[in-house]
Amino acid sequence: MTDLLRSDDGPRDHGGGIDAAVARWGGTRAGWLDLSTGINPCPYPLPALPPDAWTALPDAAATEALLAAARAFWSVPDRLDILPTAGASAAIARMPALASGKRVYIPQPTYNEHAAAFRAAGWEVSASPEPACDATVLVHPNNPDGRCWQERELPSAGLLVLDESFSDVCPEQSLLPVAQSRPETLVLKSFGKFWGLAGLRLGFAIGAPERIDALRDMIGPWAVSGPALAIGATALTDTTWATRTRQRLSEDAARLDRMLARAGAPVVGGTDLFRLYDTADARALQDRLAEAHIWTRRFPYSDRWLRLGLPGSDDGWQRLDAALR
Q: Which of 53, 136, 222, 269 is the one with CA 20 to 30 A from 322?
């Protein structure tokens, strides 16, 4: 394995990259099956939008409607404040400015934007909690292995960032209640993953009012577009869709595990939005699938791990099955 905390001087490793895959293996972008991300492939159906969602600056009423829907969906206590952001990434980039210190604990491997943000702000990023750190970032459930943290494992002091971008598939695991008793805790939520609308760029930061006020001042006004406010408010109140989607994702994740097991790649982690598999040679399997125009996620620090998202159609499942056989 290479250094988990520092990549090369090139762009940071993420899912996606279909254009590069097309350039290497051919085909058209529309003809590829993208399984490289953890985004729900069956997104929330877009509602009709009022015309002024596109033509007017987002107003207080639209923002309040979204906040009320978010508070109800995640059962956010009244004592905590909520800030909508342009995706969770907008909040991640500003987390280092919410604390004073020099050393942040970020267990590895995990989503690499957290370490990048702290390092850019001059912090030392450590994969160990010892010696004591001034801040801690935990992705819960973790990406890519799906680890869920327990409350007893949380540090007792310092800024605590809990990134729950993938937690909507397992809401019973949420650590949001921790923020009630720990004012230095910030919980991040992502709308794009579970609802499958990553292009909408909508996320949330939840925490004590003084922390959220500081973040709000940094982000500035009109951080979330009118269409995102309207779509988010509608989707977050549709609990029937959420319940059915969790069931479907769970069934599809189990189906994917069976399919990869037959191909000799047992599951070693993940969530119901993405699965992590142990392979004899991750590069070889990724290349083999790419020849069939199916794109997956490999990691620079492991030559065995391959991560797959879920196909969203019968055709996608059939294509994957045929390529694995």
A: 269
